[in-house]
Structures are given as C-alpha cells and as structure tokens.
User: Fold this.
Amino acid sequence: MKSITVALAGNPNSGKTSVFNLLTGAHQHVGNYPGVTVEKKEGQCIHRDWRITFVDLPGTYSLTAYSAEELIARNHIQEDRPDVVVDVIDASNLERNLYLATQIMEMDVPMVLAFNMSDLAERRGLKFDLDQLSRLLEMRIVPTVGNKSQGRTELLDAIVETAGAERRERIHRVTYGQEIEDKLLQIQQALDRSDGDVVARYGRRWLAIKLLEQDEDVMSKVHDQKVLEVVGRSVVHLRTILGDEPEIIMADRRYGFISGACQETIQNSVERRHDISDTIDAVVTSRVLGLPIFLLLMYVVFFLTFKIGSYPMGWLEAFFGMLADAITSHWSDGHVEWLRSLLVDGVIGGVGGVLVFLPNILLLFMAIALLEDTGYMARAAFVIDRIMHKIGLHGKSFIPMLIGFGCSVPAIMAARILDNRRNQLTTIMVIPLMSCGARLTIYALFIPAFFPPHWQGPMLWLIYLIGIALGIVAAKVLRLTVFRGETMPFVMELPPYRMPTSKGVLVHTWQRGWLYIRKAGTVILAVSIALWFAMNFPKPPADRLEGRSAQEARQEGLRYSTVGRVGLAVEPLLRPLGFDWRVGTALIGSVAAKELFVSQLGIIYAVESPDEEAPSLREQLRADYTPLVGFCVMLFCLVSAPCIATVAMTRQETNSWGWALFQFFGLTALAYVLTLLVYQVGRLWL
Ligand code: GDP
Ligand code: MG
Assistant:
C-alpha cells in the first residue's frame, strides 16, 4: 500500500470542510497548528491501494504573508510538501476562487481542482467547458457537491492519478508582462548565485515573484545582500515605469489570466463582475463591433505613423541631402574621388536611407506601446484570434504581421510578444511575405510602366493579397510540418485597462527605437559599404571607357563590377523566369535593401543624352519587357530573399543562423518556383 498526504486548500465558504468530511468520513482528529490558535484538522481514508492522509488547510483568498491563515497554508504547502494539493473552489464564483488556484499553481505542486458547489453553479445557468479549463490549468478538475457527498470516487481517483503521474513542466502560467518578467529573470539569476538552500526549498521563480511583491516573510528568509539589492532596484524601476506597486500590477495580471480562462470556458457568465473594464470589453471584444473597432484603430495607427511621420521624414531626407551636398561641394575636384563616392553614395545613401524611416518607426512603436500599456492589445489579439487560430497561429501573431507591412525588421522584433516558441518561429518565418514599405518603391516603378491606369490600383491590391495569402498558406504548412505540434489552447490574458504612464510609453518606444538605430549603425553600415565596393570594383580598364559619355561609363563600370558580373553569371538561371542580367544585377542589390532594386535599375539604364527628350526609365522598361515579365519581377521581389537587415534580425531573435538561412533560402526557392510557374504558364496564354 502506498501512502500519500493531500492538503485541502480553498476560499472560506467554498465547502472545503464539507469536501474534507466527504473524503474522510469519521476518521478525523482536530488539533492546533503549533503556536497559533488556528485549527488543524487531519483525516485519513483508503482508496484502492493508496492510504491517503488529508490535511484541511485554513480557508484563504490568497497566499500573501498578511494573515496568519495565509502563512500557515502557504508554509504547509512549501515546507511539508504534500503529494497533492486539492483546491476546493466555489464553482458559482469561479473567477474569484481561481485567484488562489493561480497562486498554488505558482508553487509548482501537483494539483487537483475540486469543482465544488457545482449544483449551485448549474442552478444559476452557468455552463462550463471543463475539458478546456482542465487543459488550460493543466490539472484534473472534478465536479463535486460537498454537502451531498457527490463526486467522492471521481475526486479520489483524480488524486491518486495525479500523485502517480509523471511531473511535467507547466506550459500555461501567469505571465507578468515584459517589464516584470525581465526583472523576475534578473532576480532569479541573482538567486542562482546566492545560497542554494532557500532556492532549493522554495523554487527560483516563486521566490523571485514573492521578492518582487515585497513579501515580508520571504524577504526575511533571503539574506543575500546582492539579491536584496537587485530586488530593491527592480521595485523602484517598476514603480516609476508602471506607476504602481509591482504587487498590484502582478495581482492584475493574475486576474487577467483568470479572466481570459473564464472567457473561454464559461458560457453563460452571469456572475462576471461588471466594472468599467467589463463594460468596455463587452463592446470592444463583441462579435459584431470587435473587428470594425480593431480595424479602425489600426487605420488610425497607420495614418499617424505614415502621415504625421512623413514630416520629420522629409526633414531627415533634407538633412541627409544637405550633408551629401556639403561633402560634394567641399571636396576638392579629382581628390580621392572614390572616397567621396563611398561617403556620399555608400554611407549616407545606405545608412541615411534607413534612418529616414526612424520617425515612422518611433511613432509606430509609440502607438503600439500605448495600445499595449492600456491593455487594448490583449483585446485586439482576442478579437483576431478566431481567424488566426484557423491557420495555427496565436491571435497575437497578428500584431507583428501588421507591422510587417511597414518593415519586416521591427515586425520580427515584435514577434517577441508571443510566448510560445513554435508560434514565434512560424510568425517570424512568414513576416517577409507581408509586403514591406521598401518593396512599394518597386511596385511604384513597375505598375505604371506596364499597366493602364484603371488596372494600377487593383494590381497593387493583388500583389499585397498574394503576399497575405502566401503567408497564410506558408504558416499553415509550417505548422503542419517543421513546427508541428498540437495547437495548445491558450489563455488570452485580459488584464484590466489602465492609464499608461508617460515614462513607461517613452521607455518602451525608446528601447525599440534604439535597436533600430543600432542596426542602421552596424549591419546596414557594413552592408552598404560592402555593396558599394562590389558595385564599383573592379574598375574597367581605361581603354574600355574611351570616348564614352559619363553615363555610359557608369553603365560599363557596373557591368564590369563584381555585382554586374554576378548578375551576368546568374542570368542563365533567371532566363526561365523571363529576367535578363539587368534584373539579375538589380535583384542582387535588393538583397541589401529592397529599395536598392530601383536605384540599381536606374543606374543600369542611365543613358547618355542629357537632353529632356531622353526616354524615362519606365519607358525603357516598357520597351524591353512585356507586362508578364513586369509582373513576374514584382512577384519575385515580393516573395524572394528578405533583405540583409531582416536576415540579421531573424538571426538575432531566433538565436540561430539555421532559421535565418532557412527563411532566406526557403523564401527564395518559393519565389523561384512560383515565378517560374507564372511566367511559363503565362507565356502560353498571353
Ligand atoms: P468551508 O468554509 O470552505 O469549510 O465551507 P463549509 O464546508 O463549511 O461549507 C459552507 C456551506 O456551504 C455549508 O452550509 C455547506 O453545507 C454548503 N456546501 C458545501 N458544499 C456545497 C455544495 O457543493 N453545494 C451546495 N449547494 N452547498 C454546499
Ligand atoms: Mg471550514
């Protein structure tokens, strides 16, 4: 016979004593917890071949250190380590009762939920999806009616099963938001370096949480000054950023977790609290208004980002233009000409070309920080989740994808909000299919060149739609193959709305903006310089340029350069797609940045005659290519290799060159196959 001990926890009046009696019958004895006048009841029962000792813990709503009952309950679980904790909850009051459950979950003990008062809940018209709730909370749930002795055998079965089951790490737990989670991690790292005794007994995460909550009991148990210093600093930091005590924010997040779980598992929640948050939620997440409100808000965000952002963007463009002019005019003629070109065309052109988007990026991030900090983002994800779930992604994936229409780099960064790695990776892989702003310059050149005015709008739409459709299909395929795994049900957290602090928003905006600036200063700077060299060297011998105009010489120079040679070398490979060496050369340039495709073509097509009659680039393209080729170029640019900055960001965020290269070559292969199909089939038809 195996012996186990089981602790009964629960809110006062949840029917804990009734369940205790139901389980143990008359085999009980009552004592006192040492030193306090809190009654301690123990009882026994035998079930199958298990001898089970039950301890009835004092009824509590929470597990803070503020009352003797809570401390007793908590210490019993932490120090006596029962084999199973049964949390008796009043099902007719689920949200409030689950608060204690989230705290016991954090202590990392095997748990069973006794869904007591289930008769009352039923009478009130509540319907629960207990299977779903059980998956979300990762524990067995057994409906019981304590005063009528219903559910005894099922509860005992669940207890011995849980006691005998292998322990698995939790997938769902309350997450406290980026800021707090960062601090929790720092505290845990400090704990790792301190005395292992306390850590081993209480667990790192639980200790870190309690320390951040400034729990007196735990504070008195941790003596390491370094740890306490980290805690002190973290609390001060969070207080200013969040504008509230960490303890309060953390309680909010627990309720957010519960609220999300209830929203997904209770059908007729007449018992839901009706405070302001709920009233707003009723509108914002409603089936009818939810999506339009979301789309409207997103429209406002994009309008702000691109319309208002266009002013400072203009100033920055003017600034870099002036800088380039200043360098050019102060450069004494013929004096290390290549260095001037490197500075002006390479560095200012490359880095400046990226930095001009900084205002847009900052505005976008500010809007996102605002939406996140107020709590709306969680709702938006909730609204869009129904659609995203179908393609095997989390509702939150929508946000990075949306940002992807601006630029893939911040979008990939934004995929951090996904806490499930499979979801994060899938999202990152398909983000480049959301046609970014840089690719718009290519469409802006090609569409008017090949299509009559009334076709131009629909054409642009079509390109964007192809990207979205491919993204959806690719995500689905990835989820079925590379990132296979059951789609975990998830708890959509619905934290209460709160007023964001200006400091919090600014810090969030700046942190992300700074990453962008750093990228421009490092990766993009390096690539711009390298590309400049590849486009300018080796130089053709002087006799090949004899008698040619400056423009012709540039063209010849490019043909002769590394980039031009590679373009010529890959031409046979691109022929079946309808592309020639010119497109090939421009495509190579576009790996550095998609905008470069257009400027590369411009250089290649640059012609001698300075007179006004010279055919425009569009006219030349029209003369050289058919509309089918034009379309194929756009299609290829849409799908193919993401730019170098995107690759670098994918590498950073996935922490693996493998995934970055998988994305790079996977998308390029997809682009090749698709374009080949379209071109070859199109040629038969047109
Ligand atoms: P405790 O404070 O958690 O120990 O709760 P008790 O076991 O003392 O029960 C409080 C009250 O709820 C008592 O009047 C019980 O008869 C009643 N009760 C307990 N379980 C149930 C149940 O499942 N359904 C209903 N309707 N009443 C219950
Ligand atoms: Mg009692």
User: Anything to note?
Assistant: Residues 502-536 form the longest helix (35 residues). Residues 10, 12-18, 59, 116-117, 119-120, 145-147 surround guanosine-5'-diphosphate (ligand 1) (CB under 6 Å). The beta strands are 2-10, 28-32, 39-47, 50-56, 84-90, 111-116, 140-143.
